Amino acid sequence: xxxxxxxxxxxxxxxxxxxxxxxxxxxxxxxxxxxxxxxxxxxxxxxxxxxxxxxxxxxxxxxxxxxxxxxxxxxxxxxxxxxxxxxxxxxxxxxxxxxxxxxxxxxxxxxxxxxxxxxxxxxxxxxxxxxxxxxxxxxxxxxxxxxxxxxxx
Amino acid sequence: xxxxxxxxxxxxxxxxxxxxxxxxxxxxxxxxxxxxxxxxxxxxxxxxxxxxxxxxxxxxxxxxxxxxxxxxxxxxxxxxxxxxxxxxxxxxxxxxxxxxxxxxxxxxxxxxxxxxxxxxxxxxxxxxxxxxxxxxxxxxxxxxxxxxxxxxxxxxxxxxxxxxxxxxxxxxxxxxxxxxxxxxxxxxxxxxxxxxxxxxxxxxxxxxxxxxxxxxxxxxxxxxxxxxxxxxxxxxxxxxxxxxxxxxxxxxxxxxxxxxxxxxxxxxxxxxx
Lengths: 153, 273
Fold this sequence. Notes:
The complex is a heterodimer.
Chain A: H1 2-23, H2 35-47, H3 51-54, H4 66-77, H5 79-82, H6 98-102, H7 105-114, H8 129-152
Helix pairs in contact in A: 4-8, 7-8
Chain B: E1 22-31, E2 39-51, E3 54-65, E4 70-81, E5 91-102, H1 124-127, E6 131-145, E7 148-159, E8 167-177, E9 194-206, E10 217-226, E11 231-240, E12 248-258, H2 261-268
Antiparallel strand pairs in B: 1-2, 1-12, 2-3, 3-4, 4-5, 5-6, 6-7, 7-8, 8-9, 9-10, 10-11, 11-12
């Protein structure tokens, strides 16, 4: 009888501890931070990418399926934090900013692979390398379509 | 958001739960028992990503021994910490678990020390009287190579009572998705959603008698199907590699990831602004 009570108390304590951990997440969301601060954080991450990774070419750049496949992967793995249209949420910054759009494919691949663990972005090396390149191709396709629009004006 | 889950059931890779996500998992193990009744052990896991470098997990275990009874066998609280911020050649994760389990615990989530199959033949009425408090430490090492995940876990367990020595064990795993490139269409049964591999695990004795004598070992093919809806299904037939092992273990499980769970609870507690 006593051990049953101990067991229940332990479960209760652990559940409370876990709930407490959740409640500790009181840092202001990224959406609440200023746009400039947001941009600074992204800039800081992109500039940390080692040179040899920055210049890595995208092997799937001309793959006709890469944008569509990357879009699917973005929706599955990235949109929850970065927003469905990459507009940013309280959990992660927008990917439509200048720093991301001007980053090389190699730099974006490096950030996807290594994450920004201290700031809450997990490493995504669990996705096979070709899938990470597909995501990069999708991200870079926005800039391409934006340039096309500008040329059409 | 949902992760590309590994197919392992015993082995851990170095990937943690995404921050703010809750993964609810159910697993079963059917095991054959020499000199006793076969059993079906089951457990539920609640895995939460506190930070990108810290995952905490709570387990509730039970088992049914055929022609005997069904019993609740214990609880576990596990924490995994990622000390390095980036990907490296080998990626370590530190694992710390406290468990409060009864003698009848049969989930075989890890095999350690001199655990042998005859330990599991004890009737539930007898095993239920033994209550163990254990601290378990693991070093999880893992890396990705050309689409393959290779993982090595070493474990050491100490029963809190002072007369019990540290016990040791290991788990090894290798797995790979069937396709490395995603198809452009949303699909449930595409090759990229299947992840297949193999794991091997067993005991390494204890601090008084380290080694392979009187230990049990298993080899188990593993497979997972990651559905775009966030569900993951796993299946693993396991085979005992010596006479001290159960001849056959069949494991299966289902899990569902709930992203943004932390944000919702944080709002309830007034944390989210």
